[in-house]
Every structure is written in structure tokens, then in C-alpha cells.
Specification:
Chain A: It is a peripheral membrane protein. The complex is a heterodimer of chains A (325) and B (402). With 325 residues, chain A is of the alpha/beta class. Chain A has helices spanning 45-53, 80-86, 98-101, 108-120, 124-137, 143-146, 156-168, 186-203, 214-220, 238-243, 248-256, 295-299, 318-323; strands at residues 3-14, 17-29, 34-38, 61-70, 73-74, 91-94, 174-178, 206-211, 223-228, 231-237, 305-308, 311-313. In chain A, strand 9 and strand 10 form a beta hairpin. With 402 residues, chain B is an alpha/beta fold. Chain B has a domain at 362-401. Chain B has 14 helices and 11 strands. Chain B has a 7-stranded mixed sheet with strand order 6-7-8-3-9-10-11, sandwiched between helices. In chain B, helix 3 (123-133) crosses helix 4 (143-153), helix 3 (123-133) packs parallel to helix 5 (170-182) and helix 5 packs parallel to helix 6. Chain B is globular and about 65 Å long. The chains are: A alpha/beta (325), B alpha/beta (402).
Chain lengths: 325, 402
């Protein structure tokens, strides 16, 4: 296994109390595999990713438990310098908003080349050639002429390609993409997603795709982990989860998206709001919004039940959820 | 009355008629002596009608001019040319008291509920502010009660009247924005991406709320969004914009099931569908490149630089928004306005029922059958009572397909 997150806990100490952002997350990614982590804002999907990358703001954040095992070594036990070597070299991240993640006063060539100067000790001249090569690879037209351009001179889709190029630069074995296409238009979204999937196949990387969009995930992921209030509530191979979700939250999400091929009467809506992380409801965090909630759901946090091979659901009534059509 | 582009074919008198609306932002050079060197053609000739009680969806990618159209409709931007007729009266020419009266009837709901509410005002002040300007709607002593009624209407607790925006979640804030839009009892609401900043599970709640309010108050909506699925859900008619123009407009069946403009087809085919099986049924049209700059749009058809059908004629001649000649005689379901020289029908969205609805598989059925057999006395859970919410059945896909 390339990466294994084991029972990870992250909390934030705020003025109002302790916000429990991640409460015991387990997931793993193998080489050449794509894991989609799905969740709404506040579900802990990005915080988990930041913990893996080692870019969590500490304080106020605090990793209060768990292990992150990358290539058989626990990242959380490493020294800062060791982790810095891994970051960029062996694992890289693609952020949602390319415009604010790129430095506006440096040309894209300099920013791409910097990777090679810092990590590989190349000269600036060679690094620039490498930058052109990378831009070609992510299919930015006229790369040679545009290598000296600044981020604002590129369109949103092109900027996201530059982010992808930067992440790919040192051919890492793991890429974490946090909402890589959310800020893009649909027609450009498809181009960028295709590019990402293609490069992943080529380099046989592990990819963690963080998103809230069930549609984007369907096309590229192998496995899906659905997060809610800092926990994984369901994980499954991608085909199965869409066919028959085993957790009421996943099911509600799938049903609440309007579909292109149907003009519905009224949309199914999950009632209520996602929980406040300062006061996560006891028992199953989803119980106040769940149509199937019973007494037991308010008592104890449901463990992950094995639904089938490679499938888990944190619902006492997973069977009923699967059966109910 | 002869049919003009984008006009309503059936139904009553249009409440809003937009004709050849143009908005150009000048590009200038020089500091002291400003010289105009060009213009960003944000909106370049948009025409449509809105009937009373109707929802017109406008879709397009960023930079296509859809938000500029919205801002002109509510008079936040002055058009460079063109007319916006509200009940026959051109509001772009109004000023003073007459304009104020019209503005009361056309209100806006903004995209971002985090920045469109003043953080230093209480909810009561925010929703009640329109009454400061239009004091004839609610006399002073009556305002608090009115605001509380509005909170109730949009599904918020009326006791929250003294709270501040930061005490609410995104979905609740958007409800506050909607309540403010409703305060003056408008006839038209222009909603610019009202749900795109919200989480998936909350989006549905707000869309349902908008639906309900329309029925309750007989509102007309101009619903602007980039999400084609949501637009289909809420709209009676849909207009597709590209680079400052409407390239195709028609009823929702015409646009989604019988699109004739290549851009609409590409847009529809690019929408990610939450169903991995759908890949096998769908043809994806991948567009190359980006949207051209509106400061320097291509000659002829604006879409020709990305179009796979483009020919020499597209470069020379601007295609007009009208029913294409091929579809004119026949009583074809594709008979609607499309601005393409080579319009042809292409089915991009698979017909309903071909895609599986979540939770409705053969496996699921078999299991529930088995279970019903074992237990005997128990009814297999139905579609709505097992997971449904009292608001309605989760999906009607299977019943209609079967």
C-alpha cells in the first residue's frame, strides 16, 4: 500500500472550544489507484489531506492521534526536514484555486523551474527548459513562448494545468487534488479531469481526489470514501456506491442532485444542516438529519460494518438502506 | 403580432421583454487624456421575453455575460444599447420616481450569501432595509412584523430577527437573501447563481424553496446559473449564452432533449453525471481551447473558434437567433431558436430511464425480494417511506420509465 491513514484525529482549538474536524479516519491508496474523498464543507476531507501533506496550520490545528503511513514509514513520527524532502518530491498537492496558489509576481516558468532548482539542484537555465517541457506535457499551447508569462495572463483552465504541471514535476508517487476542477467551467472541467487521469495512468501514481461533486467522481475514481462530520461513513468501489448506497447520507446526497435527464417535481432534500464541529451530536453524527434514525443511533457511534468485499458503511441500518429502493 | 427572437410562444403577455441588449465596457489608454482603444463586449445583443409566472433559465460559462444581463435587468448597470421593457415600458429610459416604482417590482438574489449581506446589520435590518426606501410598502410600525413573516416564509425562525449574518450557515444566509428579495412583493426575481455557493445537500432545500415561493406569490424568475442540471430542474424555458449572445433558446425539452446548437451540445455532454454506468451511454464532445476574449471576439459566429463544424461561412456571417430553416416546416420537437448556420439535432442527454437511478438496481431488488420472503409479514419498504422526506418522493425515475 502506498499510503495508509490509520485512525487519524485532528482537532482545532478555537476561542469557542475544541472543534473536532477529523475523528478517526482510515483510508488507503495503492499505486495507480484513485480514491475519491467525498464530503460537504466541514466534513474534514481537506483537513485530512492537509495532515497527510504536513501543511496543517498548527496551532490552531492539532493531530491528536493516529498514523499516516507512507511507503511503510509513519509521517507523523518524522522530523520536519525529512517531511520537507518528501513533500513535492514524493507527494504533491493540487489546490482548488490556482490563481491564489500561484505566486503572482513570478513567471510560471520560474515557479515550475523552482522545483528542479530546489529539489534537484539544477541551474536556472536547465530548469527553464524543464518548465517548457512540463508545460508541453500538460498541453499548454505555445509553451516556449508562454513560459515567461505571469499567472494572470492565463485562463482558469490553463492555470489549473500549470498547477498540475507543478505537482507532476518531480514525478511523485502520490498526488492529492483538492477540488481541482470546482472553480472551472464545465467544458474546461472535462479537459482538466481527463488530463489528470491520463497523467496518473502514465506515471502510475496514487491519486486522492477530494471533491463535493458526485458527478466528477463517477468518471475517474476507483474507490470512494464518503465523509461526514470528520468520519468516513461509507466506502466502496465507485460502481457499487452509485448503484446501491449503503448509508442514508450517501443515498440522500445522490437523490438530492437534480439530473440532466429528468425534470423532477420536487427535489429530495436532506433536512437540516451539517453539524457544528464544536458540538457533534452524540451517536451517529448524521442521526438528526436521518430519515431512518432510531434510538440506537443516538446512543453509540456506529462502527464501520462490512457490507461486502471492500465495502463498508457506518450505519446500523445499512442492510435496510441497501434494501430500500 | 409577429414572432420575435426568443419570444414566448404560448401563454400570456410577457411581463419583461428584452431587446438587443448591449453592454460594452470601454478599454482606455492614457492617464490624463483617456483614449478609447476598444471595448469589452460583455453583452452583445441579447433578446428574450419573460412571461408572468414563468422561469427563464440562462446558462453559460464564466465570462459569457449572463451576470451582466442580470445586473442590467435590475438596473445595477446601464445598458450601452437596447431596451428592457417591463409591461411595455422601457425601463432603461426611466429615471427618478418612475424608475423607483419599477425597481420595486424587479428584485435580485445574489450568488454569494457571504458577501451580499452586511455583516454589521442584523437580519431584521437587512430584510427591512428595502422598506426604508419604499416606505409605502410597509408603514413604520408594521415593519418588524412584516420581516418576521418573511423569515417564516423562507423557513427561518422569526425569533432570529436580531441575529447577525455570521450566526447563520450558508444555506440559511441564502434564505435571508431571498427574504430580502421578497420584501417589496416584487413580480420578477432575478437570481444570479443563487445556489452555486451552497453544499449539495443544502442546494436542494433552497431550490425547493424557490419553487414553492414562485407558486405561492406568482413570481417570475430569471434564473442564472452555470449548472445545467439545476437550470433544467427549475426552468420552463432555457437560454444558452456564449460570448455575450444567446446562441440557443427554447423550452427545457427542446434544449435538453433536442439541442441543435453545437455549443449547447458540447455543454450538455460535458456535464458530469453522477453515474459511472452513464459513460457507456454518453458521447462526450470535448471542446478545445478556451472561450475567446470578449474584448476581441471572433468575426462571424462567436463559437466558430472552438466548433468542430465551423466552415468558411461561419467566419463571414453572424448566424441569427431564429428557428433554423431545416426545422421550420416540420412540426419537429427541435423547432426552436438556434443561432447556427449548420444546426442539426443531436441527442446528448440519454433518454430518461436509460440511466439508473441510485438505489434501484437489479441487485437491490433481488435483495429486497429475498428479505420480504423471509420476513413475510413486513412490506418491502417503498421508495418514499423508507428514505424519503415528507417533502416528496426521492425519485420518480423508475415509475416513469416503467
Amino acid at each position: 500500500m502506498l499510503l495508509e491513514v490509520r485512525d487519524l484525529h485532528v482537532e482545532f482549538h478555537t476561542r469557542d472550544g475544541v472543534a473536532k474536524a477529523v475523528n478517526g479516519v482510515n483510508y488507503s491508496v495503492a499505486e495507480g489507484e484513485t480514491l475519491a474523498v467525498l464530503g460537504e464543507s466541514g466534513s474534514g476531507k481537506s483537513v485530512t489531506a492537509q495532515a497527510i501533506m504536513g501543511i496543517l496550520d498548527m496551532p490552531p490545528g492539532k493531530i491528536s492521534g493516529g498514523e499516516i503511513v507512507f511507503k511503510d514509514r509513519d509521517l507523523l513520527k518524522m522530523k520536519k526536514e525529512e517531511r520537507r524532502k518528501i513533500r513535492g518530491q514524493e507527494m504533491a498537492m493540487i489546490f482548488q484555486d490556482a490563481l491564489s496558489s500561484l505566486n503572482p509576481v513570478l513567471s510560471v516558468g520560474e515557479q515550475l523551474g523552482e522545483m528542479f532548482v530546489v529539489h534537484r539542484g539544477m541551474s536556472h537555465k536547465d530548469a527553464r527548459l524543464k518548465a517548457v517541457e512540463l508545460m508541453d506535457r500538460v498541453r499548454i499551447p505555445a509553451a516556449r513562448e508562454r513560459v515567461g508569462n505571469y499567472p494572470h495572463q492565463f485562463s482558469g483552465g490553463m492555470r489549473q494545468r500549470i498547477m498540475i504541471a507543478m505537482a507532476m514535476a518531480l514525478e511523485p508517487s502520490l498526488i492529492i487534488a483538492d477540488e481541482p476542477t470546482t472553480a472551472l467551467d464545465v467544458t474546461v472541467q472535462a479537459q482538466v479531469m481527463d488530463l489528470l487521469a491520463e497523467l496518473q495512468r502514465e506515471l502510475n501514481m496514487g491519486l486522492i481526489l477530494i471533491t463535493h461533486d458526485l458527478g466528477v467522481v463517477a468518471d475517474v475514481a476507483d474507490y470512494i470514501a464518503v465523509m461526514y462530520a470528520g468520519r468516513i461513513v461509507e466506502s466502496a468501489p465507485v460502481h457499487e456506491i452509485y448503484k446501491a448506497p449503503a448509508h442514508p447520507y450517501t443515498k440522500g446526497l445522490l437523490q438530492s442532485i437534480p439530473r440532466l435527464d429528468q425534470k423532477g417535481q420536487e427535489l429530495y432534500a436532506i433536512k437540516g444542516l451539517p453539524p457544528n464541529l464544536l458540538h457533534i451530536p452524540p451517536g451517529c453524527a448524521f442521526n438528526p438529519r436521518c430519515p431512518m434514525a432510531q434510538e440506537i443511533c443516538r446512543g453509540e457511534v456506529p462502527p464501520l460494518f462490512e457490507v461486502a468485499r471492500h465495502r463498508e458503511s457506518a450505519c446500523y441500518f445499512w442492510k435496510e438502506t441497501l434494501d430500500a429502493r | 403580432m409577429h414572432a420575435e427572437p426568443g419570444s414566448v410562444r404560448v401563454g400570456g403577455e410577457p411581463i419583461l421583454q428584452v431587446r438587443d441588449l448591449v453592454k460594452h465596457y470601454p478599454l482606455t489608454q492614457g492617464i490624463l487624456i483617456k483614449k478609447q482603444i476598444g471595448a469589452v463586449k460583455a453583452v452583445d445583443g441579447v433578446s428574450f421575453d419573460l412571461a408572468a409566472g414563468e422561469t427563464l433559465g440562462i446558462v453559460g460559462e464564466s465570462g459569457c455575460g449572463k451576470s451582466t444581463v442580470a445586473r442590467m435587468l435590475v438596473h445595477l448597470e446601464q445598458p450601452t444599447a437596447g431596451a428592457i421593457r417591463y409591461k411595455g415600458e422601457d425601463i432603461t429610459k426611466l429615471s427618478g420616481r418612475a424608475l423607483k416604482a419599477v425597481r420595486r417590482n424587479i428584485q435580485m438574489v445574489f450568488q454569494d450569501p457571504y458577501t451580499s449581506l452586511n455583516p454589521r446589520m442584523t437580519v431584521g435590518d437587512i430584510i427591512g432595509e428595502p422598506y426604508e426606501i419604499h416606505s409605502e410598502v410597509a408603514p413604520k410600525g408594521d415593519r418588524r412584523r412584516k420581516v418576521q413573516d418573511l423569515l417564516d416564509v423562507v423557513g427561518l425562525n422569526p425569533e432570529y430577527i436580531n441575529r447577525y449574518p455570521h450566526q447563520f450557515s450558508g444555506g440559511q444566509r441564502q434564505r435571508i437573501g431571498i427574504a430580502r428579495g421578497l420584501a417589496l412583493n416584487p413580480e420578477i426575481i432575478v437570481a444570479d447563481e443563487p445556489v452555486s455557493a451552497l453544499d449539495v445537500s443544502v442546494q436542494a432545500q433552497v431550490v425547493n424553496l424557490l419553487d414553492r415561493l414562485q407558486a405561492e406569490f406568482g413570481l417570475s424568475y430569471v434564473f442564472i446559473a452555470h449548472d445545467l442540471s439545476i437550470v433544467r430542474h427549475i426552468s420552463d424555458r432555457v437560454g444558452v449564452m456564449y460570448l455575450g449572445r444567446i446562441v440557443e433558446i427554447g423550452t427545457d425539452e427542446q434544449i435538453y432533449d433536442h439541442p441543435t446548437h453545437p455549443y449547447t451540445q458540447a455543454l450538455l455532454s460535458a456535464v458530469p453525471v453522477p453515474d459511472p454506468m452513464a459513460r457507456e451511454h454518453r458521447e462526450r464532445i470535448l471542446l478545445h481551447g478556451d472561450v475567446p476574449s470578449p474584448a476581441n471576439p471572433p468575426s462571424g459566429c462567436p463559437f466558430r473558434t472552438r466548433c468542430w463544424k465551423a466552415q468558411e461561412r461561419c467566419e463571414r456571417e453572424v448566424p441569427l437567433l431564429a428557428v433554423p430553416a431545416v426545422f421550420r416546416p416540420a412540426d419537429s420537437p427541435a423547432r426552436h431558436d438556434s443561432a447556427c448556420h449548420f444546426a442539426e439535432e443531436k441527442q446528448v442527454v440519454p433518454p430518461e430511464g436509460l440511466l439508473e437511478t441510485p438505489g434501484e438496481t437489479v441487485v437491490g431488488k433481488a435483495v429486497s425480494q429475498e428479505k420480504a420472503d423471509e420476513s413475510g409479514q413486513e412490506d418491502p419498504p417503498g421508495p418514499s417511506d423508507a428514505v424519503g422526506h415528507e417533502d416528496g418522493p426521492p425519485s420518480s425515475g423508475s415509475s416513469r420509465a416503467g
